[in-house]
Amino acid sequence: MTFSTLALVLAVGLAGPLLSWRGAWHVPVIVGELLAGVLFGATGFGILHTGDPTFTFLADMGFALVMFVAGTHVPVRDPAVRSALAVGAMRAVLVGIVAAAAGYALAGWFGTGHGAVYSVLIASSSAALALPIIDSQGLSGKPVLELMAQVALADTASIVALPLVIDIADAGRATLGALAVAASAVVLFFVLRYLERSGLRHRAHEVSEKRKFALELRVSLALLFTIAAVATHTHVSIMLAGFATGLAVAGVGEPRRVARQLFAITEGFLSPLFFVWLGAELNLREFADRPRLILLGLGLGLAAVLAHVLMRVLGQPITYGALAAAQIGVPVAAVTIGTQLHVLARGEAAAMMLGALVTIAVAAAAAAMAAKAAPKA
Fold first, then answer.
1. Which InterPro entries match (predicted)?
2. pTM for this structure?
């Protein structure tokens, strides 16, 4: 990878902010970055080559940070959300049951044999997508707390389950690796909590801020990549490492200064690089060979929306159910892991991303409707 290629990647990644410029549309930044990658990668001009080891390694770093940030978005410390866990858990479980039926049905109709993967995709939610939408629309009240609890649980469960189902033949080793990563994250949580309660973290913060050491950022990245190393050595995706580290940090409370620093390095550099790489990796030309997989993508997206809006039977407004269906982290992880393991059929990765885009479009529309229907203060 050369500096000219790196400059091109970051330049075309600006398509993300451009497409997201109008806040009312609720278009995630990553959509533009993915489309830029598609245009300059295997589908389009073929300028970006994802087989480049340096490009791939930087993309893996971005993937780890993207999942870390997703983990920090899970509201594990919010007492109001915890009070709504029972209802949220019930809805998440019922969505999972519907998703299992729909996932295996789609796998049978299209002959892919990936019913378990589709079930996880359909059942998943995205706290990193849903929570900012909720904040931007000013939604509040008990139904919103229940929605947040449901999304947090579904997001966490899906990310843990995905590595175990995407390659069934290797599920035993993946389970052991996942346990190793989880144990590392638990140890990290207790270490961080001790540093916070003892005041050591605060004293280090004061020195770092005064002397411009950026100690907290350095330590955060070192810890993240240490757990990522545990994941790679135990043959588990760095997706789980990033998310588990984010959950550990969220459980203690992420300092605002570190959050801003990580936001800068993630959203300003490694995240757009990862999503441009992912878009370049996707080959939409494969749809020409297997056009039926377009229907698979639409089916995955619509099945996810249907599974979530069916929670209307438990009293959840339809608009909130559609918002809970918004997904991005799990489909991205499925595509990334599935591509690396070579377990996906031609065009299947693109179908998964198409399904995710369907849920995002529906969720954005549903959020706007919910905001209009909400009582004015």
1. Cation/H_exchanger_TM (IPR006153), Na+/solute_symporter_sf (IPR038770)
2. 0.83
